[in-house]
Amino acid sequence: MKTKARYLRQNQTEAEQALWRQLRNRQLMGYKFRRQYVIKPYIVDFVCVAAKLIVEIDGGQHAEQRHYDQRRSRLLESQGYRVVRYWNNEVLNNMEGVLEALTLALSQGERGSES
User: Fold this and answer.
1) Number of domains in the chain
2) Contacts with 14 (C-beta within 8 Å, 6 or more apart), sequence order
3) CATH number for 6
């Protein structure tokens, strides 16, 4: 599984590359994100382990596999993660909006952990 994750890191989609440029090196609110990270039995696109936030970037094939994605998200959520999804075209055409939504998700997670 680690070999597949390494392969995916080396062969990211254009949208994944664009988002990674914004998330790497703690650029978003100081949070550390990892890409193509193994959370068994899956490999997630991006994760902030500290905030328990998973970011998935979906291409057109995900329109046909909605049920699989829902099952996958439920299993990851049962492990304490929140899963947010964006379409490739959202990332490529509205990066500012995606980053605002991620900032909000991270802020909500901070408030949730304080109570």
Assistant:
1) 1
2) 88, 92
3) 3.40.960.10
Distance (Å, rounded) from C-alpha 60 to C-alpha 69? 13
Q: Which two tokens stand for residue 75?
A: 């299993």
Pairing of strands 82-87, 34-39: unpaired
Which residues, other chains included, contact 112 with Cβ-Cβ below 8 Å and sequence gap of 6+?
A: none
DSSP state of 38: E
Tens place of pLDDT for every residue, the chain, 115 residues?
878 888 888 889 999 999 999 999 999 999 999 999 999 999 999 999 999 999 999 986 655 678 888 999 999 999 999 999 999 999 999 999 999 999 999 998 776 554 3
Cα of 12 vs its chain's centroid, Å: 13
- pTM (predicted TM-score): 0.89
